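Hi support team,

I've been running sequence recovery on a batch of backbones for a student project. Most finish fine, but this one hangs at about 90% for roughly twenty minutes before it completes. I'm not sure whether the input is malformed or the queue is just slow. I've pasted the C-alpha cells below so you can try to reproduce it. Let me know if you need the job ID as well.

Thanks,
M.K.
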C-alpha cells in the first residue's frame, strides 16, 4: 500500500514539475523580447523611449541595461533546465525498474507535446510574418526584415529569427 502511494505521489510530482517546466520555458523564451519595442505598435502608442522623451545617450544606456537583463534571464532559464534534469535524475534514482520505464515514457510524451507546442508557435509566427510581408512594398519589406532581424536576432533563410 505504501509503495503504491509513493508511486502515485512521484507520478503526480513529476507531472507537476514537468508542467511547471513547460510553463517556465514558454515564459522565459518570451522574456528576452519583452525588454524591446514590440514589432507592431498600436496606433497612437509611443515607444517607451518616446514616452519618456529619452535622450540618445539615455536610450543607449536603457538598451544596455535591458540587454544585460535579457542575458541574465536566459542564464537563469538554462540554470533552471539544469536543475530540472538534476531533479529528474534524483527522482529516477528512487524508482524501481518498472517505475523508471513509466517515467521515461511519460517524460518522452511530455517532451513530444512541448515540441509540438513550440512548432505551433513558430509556425503561427512565420505565417504572420509572411502575411505581413505580402502587405508591404519592396522598400517596406526590406525595412520590416531589418526590424525583425534587429529585434529577434539572426534571421534564417526563411526570414524568421533563429
Amino acid at each position: 500500500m505504501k509503495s503504491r502511494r509513493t508511486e502515485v505521489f512521484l507520478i503526480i510530482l513529476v507531472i507537476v514539475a514537468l508542467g511547471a517546466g513547460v510553463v517556465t520555458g514558454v515564459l522565459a523564451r518570451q522574456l528576452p523580447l519583452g525588454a524591446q519595442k514590440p514589432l507592431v505598435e498600436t496606433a497612437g502608442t509611443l515607444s517607451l523611449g518616446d514616452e519618456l522623451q529619452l535622450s540618445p545617450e539615455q536610450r543607449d544606456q536603457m538598451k544596455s541595461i535591458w540587454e544585460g537583463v535579457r542575458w541574465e534571464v536566459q542564464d537563469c532559464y538554462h540554470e533552471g533546465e539544469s536543475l530540472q534534469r538534476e531533479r529528474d535524475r534524483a527522482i529516477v534514482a528512487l524508482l524501481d525498474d518498472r517505475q523508471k520505464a513509466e517515467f521515461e515514457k511519460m517524460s518522452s510524451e511530455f517532451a513530444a507535446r512541448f515540441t509540438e507546442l513550440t512548432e505551433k508557435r513558430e509556425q503561427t509566427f512565420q505565417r504572420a510574418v509572411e502575411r505581413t510581408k505580402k502587405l508591404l512594398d519592396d522598400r517596406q519589406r526590406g525595412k520590416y526584415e531589418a526590424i525583425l532581424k534587429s529585434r529577434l536576432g539572426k534571421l534564417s533563410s526563411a526570414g524568421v529569427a533563429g
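--
Follow-up from support: It reproduced on our side and the slowdown came from queue contention, not your input. The chain has a mean pLDDT of 75. No action needed from you.
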